[in-house]
Design brief:
binds guanosine-5'-diphosphate, Signal_recog_particle_SRP54_M, Signal_recog_particl_SRP54_hlx, 8-stranded mixed β-sheet, 58% helix, Four Helix Bundle (Hemerythrin (Met), subunit A), 434 Repressor (Amino-terminal Domain), cytoplasm, EC 3.6.5.4, alpha/beta
Length: 447
């Protein structure tokens, strides 16, 4: 799941992270591609619109973290938008099973969604992790095979199973299950309701009356992630009739496009509590928004890099620089400060080590282009060999001064010229940005 989306977003990020400067046009193009990538992953259109708007808003409003490249900051912004979409950073909902025993958990969903399998997986989890005594009960009176399947699974995972009695109505079985739970000292009773191949009134009415008599702590809808937007539609319809408390998405191990998983929370407002990741009884992962977003983007290292940089940024210095920029001033001392910031991050080596895909070949390419730690130190040395006056007014740097500086810092005059040129380009860029008064990442410089 998500492979195609991961690849497409990766393509967008590769284009961005390779640059030191992002223009507004670059950001627009990236947003268009992100939009297409999400739509192709079968994410619902209103959801896509919201996410893209959020990313744009942040890319414009975000403070620039100067120690990282703007493209890397965009990766972090997209990551955060995905986390929000999935319910927010702290979204690890777990299960509510506290209360006077036996606590009921009602399982709802269409036939074939993985409801019975998930009931057994939950029972196993509650027993193994939460140390609860669990009773499984099948309420599928129309399909004896479904009851037998649950019985078999209960035996497999080693939890209690309510004996099947012929010709009992679902509501009565539910009552019997709660009674048995009470008498036999069970903590949790999991009620596996009957599913149909499509939503119908009988199924809803039955589930509703079961909920009325058992007062479940959790009413979970099980939905098949491979069915895409149909799963989202199903969840909406169920939620209109049943007070659902959460969702379980099954077959996350399949090769679906992932749109259901991404749209579900936003469309229904319900937390995704678990993900089914295999047919086996232990194939159930607790949902974690941040982990899933990280998996989708596949750029966890960049995200932590930017988080680290954001913490390291010296707010005072940043404000001072912003003021200077607004006035169109950015001198060589400021440039040196930028290098210092980079060094604080463990230098280029440290930063490159944190980036995925930074293989040997890429590293030697960068080294050939002079992009290594030595370069950082060399640039700093050049600036330190200048007088304060020269640093503040680089335009006074003529041939004889350059020669002196080159000798003082152990480099060639060409190296000094390169640095001056780089500084001039940065200063021009910042002047433009300052004039336009436009904030955000577009048009800003990275590291
Ligand atoms: P129900 O009709 O909703 O009770 O669905 P079942 O629990 O019988 O599941 C239908 C099929 O899907 C079974 O073959 C399960 O083994 C399979 N299944 C359920 N959950 C998952 C999952 O998360 N991953 C995979 N690969 N298969 C699953």
């Amino acid at each position: 799941m998500f492979d195609a989306l991961t690849e497409r977003l990766g393509g967008v990020f590769d284009k961005l992270t390779g640059r030191g400067v992002l223009s507004e046009k670059d950001v627009d193009a990236a947003l268009r591609e992100i939009r297409v990538a999400l739509l192709e992953a079968d994410v619902a259109l209103p959801v896509v619109k919201d996410v893209v708007a959020k990313i744009r808003e942040r890319a414009v409003g975000e403070d620039v973290i100067r120690a990282v490249a703007p493209g890397q900051q965009v990766v972090k912004i997209v990551h955060d938008a995905l986390v929000d979409l999935l319910g927010g950073e702290g979204e690890q909902p777990g299960l509510m099973v506290e209360g006077e025993p036996p606590v009921a958990i009602l399982m709802a969903g269409l036939q074939g969604s993985g409801k019975t399998t998930t009931s057994a997986k939950l029972a196993k989890r509650l027993q193994d992790v939460h140390k609860k005594k669990v009773l499984l009960a099948s309420l599928d009176t129309r399909r004896p095979a479904a009851m037998e399947q649950l019985q078999q699974l209960a035996g497999q995972v080693g939890v209690g199973f309510l004996p099947i009695m012929a010709n009992q109505r679902a509501v009565d079985i539910a009552k019997r299950a709660m009674n048995a739970g009470k008498l036999q000292g069970y903590d949790v009773v999991i009620l596996d309701t009957a599913g149909r191949t499509s939503i119908d009134e009988d199924m809803m009415a039955e589930a509703k009356s079961i909920a009325d008599v058992t007062r479940p702590r959790e009413t979970l809808l099980v939905a098949d992630a491979l069915t895409g937007q149909d799963a989202v539609e199903t969840a909406k319809r169920f939620h209109e009739r049943l007070p659902l408390t959460g969702l379980v998405l099954t077959r996350m191990d399949g090769d679906g496009r992932g749109g259901a998983a991404l749209s579900m929370r936003h469309v229904t407002g319900l937390p995704i509590k678990f993900l089914g990741v295999s047919e086996k009884p232990d194939g159930l992962d607790a949902f974690d928004a941040k982990r899933l977003a990280g998996r989708i983007l596949g750029r966890g290292d960049i995200v932590s890099l930017v988080e680290k940089a954001a913490q390291d940024v010296d707010q005072d210095k940043a404000e001072r620089l912003a003021k200077k920029m607004a006035k169109g001033k950015f001198d060589l001392d400021d440039l040196r400060e930028q290098f210092g910031q980079l060094k604080k991050m463990g230098g280029l080596g440290g930063i490159m080590g944190m980036l995925p895909g930074m293989n040997k070949a890429a590293k030697s390419q960068m080294a050939a282009a002079g992009m290594d730690d030595r370069m950082l130190s060399r640039q700093e040395a050049i600036i330190l060999s200048m007088t304060p006056q020269e640093r503040a007014k680089p335009e006074i740097l003529k041939a004889s001064r350059k020669k002196r500086i080159a000798a003082g810092s152990g480099v060639t005059v060409a190296d000094v010229n390169k640095l001056i040129k780089m500084h001039r380009q940065m200063a021009d860029m910042m002047k433009k940005v300052g004039k336009k008064g436009r904030g955000g990442l577009a048009g800003m410089m990275g590291g």
